[in-house]
Specification:
It is a multi-pass membrane protein. This protein is mainly alpha-helical. It has 2 domains: 51 residues, no CATH class; 352 residues, no CATH class. It contains 18 helices and no strands. It is globular. The protein starts with 25 loop residues before the first helix and ends with a helix.
Length: 472
């Protein structure tokens, strides 16, 4: 315990947001005369009195593996209880209202379930970056208090427990006629999440929350030069338009007190399928990314920024042509607008796939991300394997095409299919992150190497000129 190396004070693994760095200089204590002997004698004295020493308390602590197994057991018990209560509650309802109620429950809670999935996968991304030697904190310009993959997984675990528990309580209360209490469940959950995000005190990873909110502000209002973190998060938001669309519909029902009712199912309701807010919310992340590209072109003059802006603009026709189904005659939709919608979908999917492979990833950079600093099973499975290239490219193409299905506003009532496609899109973005970050890391390394070479050449030229002047 005392003979190990001193842990650096700036280690992010030991410090949470708001805590101060503490350095223990064990050599100072060991250098004092008689310090170790007095500690030993005091420990023996405590033993003779029947007291417990810190060493003894540490020895009686359960092993980490045992604690991990105990947590897994508790989690499985909790899953079984939630499934049992939820199933019994659904079976209590009449068959004609059951599907409508499940659709409504999904509407309130599936955005948070998808967000939880994204947090879990982001933790896996960070773990691979750490194992592969990719300095992601430098890429995203994070401070020393940034969250590690372990802390990200801790947040995801709490989300995994809280969201399904609230959903189970909602189903249970509604099935027993407690409509008012059931309606309060999603309201309380959404309010708690907002409070945690904007809590102004230095707890709950304050620096990370502030960085996240500040980046969101920069995405909505690109009034400054675009950083890598800005457009990286904006790209992730384009994969979560399903989350924002359902959040808008859920908040609309909460504001108009339509939670745990079926009034909102009417097509002409303010929160119904004819609402113009649905396509507007779907298109917002793409407009944010489009504005970033235009700002980047203004700052740098690179024409590739305009081509990238064109890519995001191709999503706009897909969204609004699909929404026209609720505002035109069926014959017009079938003969005119549906073919245009299909054509725009093909253009958007093809353009996005091309940009992913050739620009965002740059296939020549598929080298480092799965090569861990220490021998690991994933290194042998993934690094330099041809099947990795084939899988990533093929799955990206397929999921790009299926994601167009979700952008279609007229297909929103197929909630199970749309939820599955939204989860697959988040998985596609999870794959995309690996190679996008790796590509940026390679660019940073190449730039630093070029600067180092230029400085060495300039130093050599100065020495040569100095020697020539000396000889003259």
């Amino acid at each position: 315990m005392f003979g190990g190396p001193v842990v650096p004070a700036n280690s992010p693994h030991l410090r949470k947001s708001g805590s101060r760095a503490v350095v223990f200089d064990f050599d100072e204590y060991e250098g004092e005369d008689g310090a170790d002997e007095s500690l030993l004698h005091s420990g023996e004295a405590n033993d003779s009195r029947g007291g417990t020493t810190p060493m003894g308390a540490t020895a009686m602590m359960p092993s980490p593996i045992l604690l991990w197994r105990f947590k897994v057991l508790l989690f499985l018990i909790w899953v079984c209880i939630c499934c049992k209560i939820g199933w019994d509650s659904v079976m209590r309802m009449s068959a004609d209202k059951r599907d409508l109620f499940i659709y409504e429950a999904f509407l309130y809670f599936n955005p948070l379930l998808l967000a939880t999935l994204m947090v879990w996968l982001w933790g896996i991304n960070l773990w691979f970056f750490a194992q592969g030697g990719v300095n992601y904190s430098k890429i995203f310009d994070l401070d020393q208090n940034h969250l590690t993959h372990t802390e990200i997984w801790k947040c995801a675990m709490w989300m995994t427990v809280i969201v399904p528990t609230s959903m189970t309580a909602y189903i249970y209360l509604y099935s027993r006629g407690e409509v008012a209490y059931a309606a309060s469940q999603p309201v309380l959950l959404y309010a708690a999440i907002v409070m945690v995000l904007i809590f102004p005190f230095d707890i709950f990873y304050f620096s990370s929350r502030y960085f996240f909110l500040r980046t969101l502000w920069r995405i909505v209002f690109p009034l400054q030069a675009i950083s890598f973190a800005d457009f990286f998060l904006a790209d992730i938001l384009t994969s979560m338009v399903k989350v924002f669309s359902d959040l808008e519909r859920s908040v609309c029902r909460m504001v108009h007190r339509q939670v745990a009712t079926i009034a909102w199912l009417e097509a002409d309701s303010i929160c119904g399928s004819h609402s113009v807010a649905i396509p507007l919310v779907l298109v917002l992340p793409y407009l944010f990314r489009l504005n970033q590209c235009l700002r980047q072109y203004k700052d740098t003059g690179e024409k590739t920024a305009l081509l990238n802006a064109l890519k995001y603009s191709t999503a706009v026709p897909v969204i609004f042509l699909s929404a026209l189904k609720y505002h035109v005659l069926p014959e017009q939709w079938t003969n005119i607008y549906r073919p245009l919608w299909l054509l725009s979908s093909v253009v958007n999917s093809s353009y996005s796939f091309y940009w992913d492979v050739t620009r965002d990833w740059d296939l020549s950079g598929f080298t480092r991300i799965f090569k861990f600093s220490k021998p690991h099973m994933f290194s042998y499975m993934l690094h330099g394997r041809r099947w990795v290239y084939i899988w990533v490219i093929a799955s990206n193409l397929v999921l790009r095409c299926t994601w167009t299905y979700k952008l279609s506003a007229h297909l929103r009532h197929n909630y199970l299919t749309v939820f599955t496609i939204a989860a697959l899109e988040i998985f596609r973005r999870f794959q995309w992150i690996f190679f996008r970050v790796e590509n940026e890391w390679n660019k940073m390394n190449n730039k630093s190497h070029m600067q180092l070479s230029m400085s060495e050449m300039s130093n050599g030229e100065e020495k040569l000129l100095h020697s020539m002047n000396h000889n003259v």
